[in-house]
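go over this:
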Amino acid sequence: MRIAMLGAGAMGSVFGSLLVKAGFDVIFLDIWQEHIAKLQKEGLRVRDASGKEELIPVRAFSSPEGLKPVDIVFLMVKAYDTETALSQWKVLFGEKTLVLTMQNGLGNVERIAHHIPMERIIPGVTSRGAYVIGPGAVNNSGHAETVLGVVHPSQRQDSQRLAEMFTRAGVEVKYDEDLNSLIWGKLLMNVAINPVGALTGMLNVEAVSYPLTLRLQELAMKEGMEVGKAKGIQFRYADPVKKLKEIVSGAPMNRCSMLQDLDRKKRTEIDYINGAVVELGRQLNIPTPINEALTSLVKGREKQIMESEASR
C-alpha cells in the first residue's frame, strides 16, 4: 500500500512517522522547501512527550514532478489550501485513490469533492497533539483518540481497512458513521483552543487552567453548540468544558496550531473555525458575539504580522 502524506507539517509528519515505523510505504509532500530539504538530507526528527528524540529516514518531495498515483492520500494541508493542493498534486490521484482528511474546520469534504468523487473521500478527526519544532523536526505531544467515518455507504470497508492500518501503526482509532457529529465535535474544541491560544500565547493546558480564559472558551463553545444544534447536530457530550480539559490534559506541552501559524508568520484557519460558526449563526439568526470577537482579533493579529513580514 502506497501512502502520500500531503502536507508534512506537525500532524502529517507525526502520522507519517508512525506509519513508516510500522512498515508502510510513505512519501512526505510539502511546498515548505527548507523542511523537505532537511527530511531528504537528514531524515525526520520526532520528539516525544518525554523529550526523547528519534531520527526516522523518510522519502520527501517538494514538487509533484516524477511522482505516480498512490493508494491513499492523507490530506493534511490547511483548509484554505485544500483545492490548490489537490490541483498541484493531481498526479497522485488514480482511479481508486482514497483521500483521508483530518483537517480542521467545516466544509473540507465538500471542497475535496470538487476534485475527487465523494465515495473516495474518508473523513476523520483526531485529538492527537503535535507541533513543529523547526525544519525537519516535530514534537509528538501525546496519544489521543482518532476517529474515522464515512460520507458514502460504500466506504465502510475502506474506512475499516484504514482503521486497521492505524492500529498497526500504534494509533488509537475508532470507526464511526456519524460524520457530522465527529466534525462538529472537533470544531467545538477548536473554537475554544485555537483563538485563545493564538491571542494569549498560552499552552493549551494553561488556557484551561486560568479562569478568565477558560470562561472565554466556554462561551465560544456554547455559541458553537447552539449553532450546531440548530443544524441538527447530535453532540456526543453534554459538558464541552469537561471534554476540553480531557483533550488538553493528554498533551500538556502542546501549543495550538493557530499559534504555531502566527509564530511562522502564516495565515491561520480562523475563517474555517470560529468564522464558520459566525457565518452559520448569521444564516440561522443565532447571535455569536464571542466567536465574532475572537475571529476579528485573530484576523487583526494575523494582518499585523503579515504586513510586518512584507515590509522587511
Remarks:
- The chain has a mean pLDDT of 92.
- Residues 179-200 form the longest helix (22 residues).
- The two ends are 45 Å apart (CA to CA).
